[in-house]
Amino acid sequence: MAAREPSYLAKCACGKFRAELHGEPFAMGAANCFCNDCCAACYYCDEKAKKEGKKNISMSCGDYPGAGAAISCWLLGDMKVVSGKDQLRGFKMSQKSPLCRTYTACCCTPMIYIGQKFGPRWRAFNLNCITSAKDGSPLKPEMTNVMGKFALKEAWDKIPAGEAKHDMIPWGLLPRVLGVIFIPWLFPGSQITVDEEDKNIPGLFIDAATVTEIVTAETYVKAGVKVPKALQEAK
Ligand SMILES: [Zn+2]
Ligand SMILES: [Zn+2]
Questions:
Q1: DSSP state of 41
Q2: Fewer Cβ atoms within 10 A, N terminus or C terminus of the chain?
């Protein structure tokens, strides 16, 4: 069988991490998530880059406090990490969080934002890292902005006119998102074959309970967003 040509590439700022993406993004295509966790996670990676004197590719959808995280979701069968798996570092937004997010050790670029053993059959990538495999142009899908209920008002008001805005995750998506979990044979790209070597890779199939890098309340405060209950209690 001839190897499938990827349609897009996901690359970190320095190029050590590369993933091939086939077809088109899953479900929403792309969304800016304005939830407190996503905003604080963007800030966390960007601060780390600054501290280490590295140039990363931010996941923020804008250069202002409370800007959402630009996410692009891909079915597991449509993505393949071709280099830099060893660069992925997992972090969590609280001790008990079931979600592992990642950045690359090489350049502190946020990369795969949802990726864990018991996760869904898709992975959320940093949209700002994705370019066309043909001509290198950035992936520029129609944007949807979600989780407005939790957004900073000033940030939510900065969204360009014409982009869709939702208080939560739009209901219309649920059949696809749930379908891909419970009836995967309807979605050819969603069947999972887990390579033995990928089992403990953050962002791929790690058990989130084993992730030890945890964001503190201070990060939320500095990012300008609300500190979640789980972290207030942890103080
Ligand atoms: Zn890098
Ligand atoms: Zn979010």
A1: H
A2: N
